[in-house]
Design a protein that fits this description.
By secondary structure, the chain is of the alpha/beta class. The protein is built from 9 helices and 8 strands. It has an 8-stranded parallel barrel. The longest helix is centred in the last third of the chain and has 19 residues, at 170-188. The radius of gyration is 17 Å and the shape is globular. Bound molecules: 1,3-dihydroxyacetonephosphate (13P). 1,3-dihydroxyacetonephosphate is lined by residues 7, 86, 157, 162-163, 197-200, 218-222.
């Protein structure tokens, strides 16, 4: 069964969440769909019995970090998943520095992790393997005691495909996903699942579904529209 992660980023208000929840009621499978709303709305999804995650966690458990949110506070709201290393966090909040520490904290606290990796520039496709290797090594090398194939999932999100309406072609995606899985298997003896993220929508999902080694999707803007997401989920299921 494919894993479907819906990342709302910094969107929607409380009233939108109420409408959203009404519209999707009994229409999505709870076991493979994970919602990543703004942290203010996590508990609304949890109360309805959905799997829910945070879009990030603080690198510290508690303390003087103004504006940050502790994994323990997020767990109180109902998360069982978190995204770590999203390119927007890496870009705006210098998260390259904290990815390894955040993964450690999440896994030690039994919060499953979606680790985002991806090259920055389309022209860098040729060089992307060394870029991806560096991001994988940085995230995994100090956390091998806690990582299992159940608690860590990789999301391959080429930064240039996020929000751009442009996605890599299927051959490139299939090769890159193979590369990521193979690199992790050979170097870390782990069989990790790999999702794709970046401009996934109801119009390109049928084509993406032809990619054999893909385990699911991390979807941004399309996830904000319940009617579109229901159509998309229907195609995947
Ligand atoms: P879009 O689907 O809007 O391109 O966003 C992808 C993403 O960043 C999901 O984490």
């Amino acid at each position: 069964m494919k894993i479907i992660c819906l990342n709302f980023k910094m969107n929607l208000l409380k009233k939108d969440i109420r409408t959203y929840l009404n519209q999707i009621e009994n229409k999505v499978k709870r076991e493979n769909t994970i919602f990543f709303p703004n942290c203010l709305h996590i508990n609304d999804f949890y109360q309805k019995g959905y799997l829910v995650g945070s879009q990030d966690i603080s690198f510290q458990e508690f303390g003087s970090i103004t504006g940050d949110t502790s994994i323990h506070q997020l767990k109180e709201l109902g998360i069982s998943y978190t995204i770590i290393g999203h390119s927007e966090r890496r870009k705006y909040f210098d998260d390259d520095k904290y990815v390894s520490k955040k993964i450690k904290l999440a896994l030690e606290n039994n919060v499953k992790t979606i680790l985002c990796i991806g090259e920055n520039i389309k022209e860098n496709q040729a060089k992307s393997s060394s870029f991806l290797q560096e991001q994988i090594d940085d995230a995994l090398k100090n956390n091998l005691d806690s990582i299992t194939k159940e608690n860590l999932i990789i999301a391959y999100e080429p930064v240039w495909a996020i929000g751009s309406g442009t996605i890599p072609d299927n051959n490139y995606l299939e090769d890159t996903i193979f590369f990521i899985k193979d690199f992790i298997k050979k170097n870390y003896c782990l069989d990790l699942k790999v999702l794709y993220g970046g401009s996934v929508n109801k119009d390109n999902i049928e084509s993406l579904e032809k990619i054999k080694n893909l385990d699911g999707y991390l979807i941004g803007s399309e996830s904000l529209k319940p009617d579109k997401i229901l159509e998309l989920v229907q195609i995947i299921q």
